[in-house]
Amino acid sequence: xxxxxxxxxxxxxxxxxxxxxxxxxxxxxxxxxxxxxxxxxxxxxxxxxxxxxxxxxxxxxxxxxxxxxxxxxxxxxxxxxxxxxxxxxxxxxxxxxxxxxxxxxxxxxxxxxxxxxxxxxxxxxxxxxxxxxxxxxxxxxxxxxxxxxxxxxxxxxxxxxxxxxxxxxxxxxxxxxxxxxxxxxxxxxxxxxxxxxxxxxxxxxxxxxxxxxxxxxxxxxxxxxxxxxxxxxxxxxxxxxxxxxxxxxxxxxxxxxxxxxxxxxxxxxxxxxx
Length: 274
Ligand code: SF4
Known about the structure:
Lambda Exonuclease, Chain A, seven-stranded mixed beta sheet, globular
């Protein structure tokens, strides 16, 4: 199998490959989407996804200038979303500088493929420090050791260091000036934070390059041996890994990440760096 030259990698597609090569093949090569439920009961799952997406839209609108009160009034009969919004307004933008770039998409290249990252918010301090903020609506705070290995943490910092000049007076951002912050709105704005460094950026480059080579050279995309990965996967029935969705009480993801290789609108990308 040969990937098309215009294939676009993202943190979500790379994470899918790491979690299960077969899921990557089904989702990004065969482009087969959501044949079955991801969690049970479906209404709670869908409601959580809707609330997460709506919360992100409200933050985007607020950072763009829509008053907080007007947005609060737009939430009707939704205690969870109202509580998240109150938490965000109380501390969500605390200490952040006024140079804020909301819903920014950047891309770089690696092994001749595009690698794209879509950021909730990037802020630039007058002293040159740059912070990536990612709003998380999961019910629990994810452990730092888990987040450290997530492709999101690796890809977001790497792409910003490679392609963030657009936000930084046309200069590359020194990795030591980059910080990534996960902000958990359902947990009173608790944060998990990661610094960055030149050494880490080099290690990330080697890791991402190896991963993309593995995918580009792959002839087979095996099913994961870790059947835990199948519990909330929409391809369970295709793979004969069970016909019952995982229990909602055990599900703890965010709203779906919509940046993948086949629904990117390249006109919306703020900057292209190669
Ligand atoms: S059900 Fe399991 S084996 Fe099949 S794609 Fe999903 S994670 Fe992979």
